[in-house]
Fold this sequence. Notes:
The protein is α+β, with helices and mostly antiparallel strands. It has helices at residues 20-27, 32-40, 51-58, 62-71, 75-85, 89-111, 113-120, 153-159, 174-187, 219-222, and strands at 129-136, 141-148, 163-171, 192-193, 207-209. A five-stranded antiparallel sheet has the order 3-1-2-5-4.
Amino acid sequence: MPDEIDTPAPLWFTPESADVDALEQAWGAHKLSKIMGAALGSFNRLGHVNAGTASDTFGVSEGTIRRWIRDGVPASRLERVISLVRPPQGAFDQERKDLVYARGAVTKITTDPENAVALWGYKGYLEQWDLAIIKIKGMPVLTVRMARTDRDRAADKRLVAGGELVERVTFPSYWAAIVARSELLEDVYPYRVQLRNTKLASGAGKAFLDEAPRKTLRSYRKRARTSVRKTTEQSD
């Protein structure tokens, strides 16, 4: 008797108003091996998820893991898989709040500089900050990190720890970099992955598959959005 009943089910079980077609394209059954391997930080010699690690995580046999990769995850296990490979909904909610606040801060720096200095000057938030895309070593995953432009050698090493630099752009303030980071993460939303079992110092929750279509970091210096993508359904 099979471990699971292969019942068709929608890919996405969270109350999000995101583009479901985009999510299905990014997280379909044929990419499950890459997704699970990235989330668990465990691959075999062929570049697929290590079936032993995955079986221990989900409490099923290695044969079941291989069948999931071949045929898709059954409905009874789908929510568990999604909860492991994707950041929690609360993370997306917080990122939205961060973006709204950062946009207001960028405006305050221009319109009320004295107050901005009083609020954030002592933190170094009005100095230049770098935003960087890092390719995680041995994984088909990118992450985004920030650091003050005027940093020491140790901070520079931390910026690329666990990977290699793909792209880096300097922004006029911490808040401008936060806006850019938030907008980038919105743009790659369907491809976001939560890294687990990782020794990364930072960026595990702001990672995404390296095949995600994305703009250059420099493009986020030139545009100013007026809206924020809604990621949750509002309920009474």
